[in-house]
Amino acid sequence: MGGGCYNPGVSKDEVRAAIGAHKKQRITGRHLVQSAVLVPLLYKDQALHVLLTERTIEVRSHKGQVCLPGGTVHPSDESLLGTALRETWEETGVKAEDVEIIGEIDDNVVQSTGYVITPFVGFIPYPYPFKASSLETQDIFFVPLSVLMDPQSFRTQERVIGEYYYHGPVCDYDGHVIWGATGRILKHLVSLLDDSPEQQRT
Questions:
Q1: Cβ-contact 72, 57 below 8 angstroms
Q2: How far apart are CA 114 and CA 29, in angstroms?
Q3: Among residues 64, 83, 190, 195, which one has the fewest Cβ atoms lying within 10 Å of its Cβ?
């Protein structure tokens, strides 16, 4: 899929309202590894976009996959939010003080690794001097929220991608394949935006 736009009128206030009204679903378990990601939203070309990264092939897991910036908890992290902000800075160069956190959305479990991911949604400035980690981040790119909100964008598919078998939401965008936990998290985000009163009136 290319860069066509659907529902270009989604605004920061609509995102704030949708996230603020949502009652987050938490997932806990003794054997789950705590991790956190940031869903970074920014204004580009007069529309909200999501920042995504493509991982290098040098990383330990999820080689070459499209991801939200984030990772597992380090002992020095004061909180899961601290984990998400630290990893975002390491992977993209976005400083913690430049992120406006607006809330959390539902936890997500990666069955293949045993990670439970806590997603934080926040706004970041644009333009910005992004700096990709040479070890972890092969590419930083931006997907319009309008594209992700298009009902035709996400499809439930069975796919073999590299060594992985996957059944769930998939979105193809400008040569990138958005799937796995990232696909599920973004699909959940846009479902909240679609359900907001403002969107139901449009």
A1: no
A2: 10
A3: 195
Condensed to tens digits (0 to 9), the pLDDT of residues 67-102 reads 999 999 999 999 999 999 999 999 999 999 999 999
Q: What's the predicted TM-score (pTM) here?
A: 0.90
Sign of CA dihedral 112, 190, 141, 155: positive
Coil, strand or helix at 119? strand
80: alpha, beta or left? (left if phi > 0; alpha if psi -120 to 50): alpha
Q: Are 54 and 91 in contact (CB under 8 A)?
A: no
Tokens 């992120």, located at residue: 99
- Quote the tokens at residue 28: 């806990």
Query: What is the CATH topology of the domain spanning 12-152+179-195?
Result: Nucleoside Triphosphate Pyrophosphohydrolase (3.90.79)
Give the amino acid at 178. Answer: I
3-state secondary structure of 23: coil
